[in-house]
Amino acid sequence: MTVDNLLLLLLLLLLLLLLLLLLLLLLLLLLLLLQLLLLLLLLLLLLLPPLLLLLLLLLLLLLLLLLLLLLLLLLLLLLLLLLLLLLLLLLLLLLLLLLLLLLLLLLLLLLLLLPLLLLLLLLLLLLLLYYYYY
């Protein structure tokens, strides 16, 4: 293993980290879009029939679960990359900063998931109240 090979491997890991970062940013945008869609669903609650609304809500819940699974997969990938980076000790500072940024983005992603779950629960509650009173 020469120094050139180590630098090439390190560069490859750096590119993988940047790719993960882009993927996380895409997930963040998707979550924001999902939250906007859910707010729109809350506004349409009075206009739509309850059965259609229930179907839309179940679809959104399924999408949210898929996003959570994707997030967990990204976390596992990130941990594997972290283990690989611990084996290589060159340019550690820059890569650790990138990993820290990725972890912060994951935390932000999880924080964005919380209001979405709360909105879904609120929508379910409103639907149950609708069925109860009508």
From TrEMBL:
Residues 7-134 form the ABC transmembrane type-1 domain. It comes from the Eukaryota. It is a multi-pass membrane protein. Its main location: membrane. It is found in: Membrane. One of its GO terms (biological process) is transmembrane transport. One of its GO terms (cellular component) is membrane. Keywords: Membrane, Transmembrane, Transmembrane helix. The chain crosses the membrane at residues 6-33, 40-66, 72-99, 106-133. This is ABC transmembrane type-1 domain-containing protein.
